[in-house]
Amino acid sequence: MADVDDRFAFPSTGLPSRRVHVITYGCQMNVFDTRRMLQVLRPLGYEETDDMTMADLILLNTCSVREKPEQKVIGTITRLKPLKEARPGLVLGIGGCVGQQHGKALLDRLPYLDLVFGPDNIRDLPDMLASVEKGRQVGNTRRMKRKDYEFVAVEARAEAGPTAFLTIIKGCDKVCAFCIVPHVRGREISKPPDQVVHEVEALVARGVREVTLLGQNVNSYGKDRPSEGDFADLLARVSAVPGLARLRFVTSHPADADRRMMECFRRLPNLAEYLHLPIQSASDTVLKRMRRGYTVAEYLLKIEMARDACPDIALSTDFIVGFPGETREDFDRSMALIEKVRFDIIFSFKYSPRPRTRAVRMEDDVPENEKADRLQALQDLQDRIMVSRMERFLGRVEEVLVEGASRARDFEWMGRTRTNRVVNFPTSPAGAVKPGDLVGVRIEEVKAHSLRGRVEEDAGL
Ligand code: SAH
Ligand code: F3S
């Protein structure tokens, strides 16, 4: 039997042990998808390894939202070529958004690549690998119709640590002019609410204390399942799962984030006080060309709603600088809004033209050095605001969910406040604290991007 699949060749020892290494780029949804990849590979005998030189399979889970991360993927795969030449049995694959964007063209361009697949094809990995083992190059970027689409069911044991991401809606139905995401991630499809609740229950039973619900636009959740409730209904159901200490969600779209959702911050005790609401620009003309579907005044109303429901809420946003046609005045409006709103965190990017988008047909007319100057000015302003936003924690006792050892110093723990701020604190009293605990930490110091403090014994948590 020449072509016996060696997965079944050693019945007495079970499945052969093989090693997989996944390199993850991009957003939290990719982090979640990586865990699903590992999950569907486990029944084939694949164990995760941190050491790519030991791996039998290396997968790149990729991001194509800007040109830079896309180039990084090509750079990494090129550097893996010698490894493949040294060990021809090594399987190399590109998954995620770059895989979806370029599809089989990547296989032609990179003949040593075995596998290309998109975000919707994770569940087909076993079949794809079986074809690769037969010596084929495999490209699978098939899209499924909404009625046929099935999410890979989350296995709680695939998670490690007290926090977990959970995708509740895939794709995006918006048409933001700069954005490639709808072109690579497809239309919105909501995970059935019963499945979401069931998965959260399983995660909590496994020791997870904090769940972050994920979607490109979580506010659209349920629009394709109108009889089963909307996002606010889902938040209420998930929040009621016994033992769930904290609930978070990301990302909200300003046009769709409604009062019902904002009120959840007041109503649901374990919904953590943190809201990411990307604005992109504070010029109405730019927003219009971006096709974002709201004005600056409407955005500010949403911020007011959030602060009204929860005065201490931490707010973060995204800005793009140098979108086609953005004048110095447009940019100054963004700067003025930043001063006015005082966000806790801003993620800011230089505009990067992306294929298939509407904006790629507009002239990319802001020179590169001007984009760089605007980005620098925005980040300098935000750095100042961020420090003063963090100073409000000084002297306060914050509820911190302990996540694990601090990366900054030995003998320290790292955790996060409800407002999503990293806090480092000494491990004393010895042995009293462990990952997954909620502890009260008195904040004693504000660092550039984190807080430091000391456990308060009688914080009453
Ligand atoms: N709704 C999504 C947005 C995904 S893209 C979410 O879950 O956050 C994340 C951010 O990347 C966007 O908010 C935007 O600020 C930035 N971005 C997207 N396309 C871009 C482009 N072509 N150039 C620069 N930045 C971009
Ligand atoms: Fe992109 Fe806009 Fe959707 S930023 S992911 S098209 S909401």
Detailed description of the structure:
The longest helix is centred in the last third of the chain and has 24 residues, at 368-391. The strands form five sheets. The chain has a six-stranded parallel β-sheet with strand order 2-1-3-4-5-6, with helices on both faces. It has a five-stranded mixed barrel with strand order 15-16-17-19-18. It has a three-stranded parallel β-sheet with strand order 7-10-11. The chain has helices at residues 28-41, 67-86, 96-102, 105-109, 125-133, 181-185, 193-205, 231-239, 259-267, 284-290, 296-309, 328-341, 368-391, and strands at residues 18-24, 46-48, 57-62, 91-95, 115-117, 138-140, 163-167, 169-170, 189-190, 210-214, 246-250, 274-276, 314-321, 345-350, 397-405, 412-417, 422-426, 438-446, 451-455. It folds into four domains: 18-140, Methylthiotransferase, N-terminal domain (Rossmann fold, 3-Layer(aba) Sandwich), CATH 3.40.50.12160; 153-260, 2-Layer Sandwich (Transcription Regulator spoIIAA); 273-392, Transcription Regulator spoIIAA; 397-455, OB fold (Dihydrolipoamide Acetyltransferase, E2P) (Beta Barrel). It is built from 13 helices and 19 strands. With 461 residues, it is an alpha/beta fold. The protein is globular. Residues 1-13 have low confidence and may be disordered. α9 (259-267) packs parallel to α11 and α12 runs parallel beside α13. Helix content is 33%, strand content 21%. The protein binds S-adenosyl-L-homocysteine (SAH) and FE3-S4 cluster. FE3-S4 cluster binds next to α6.
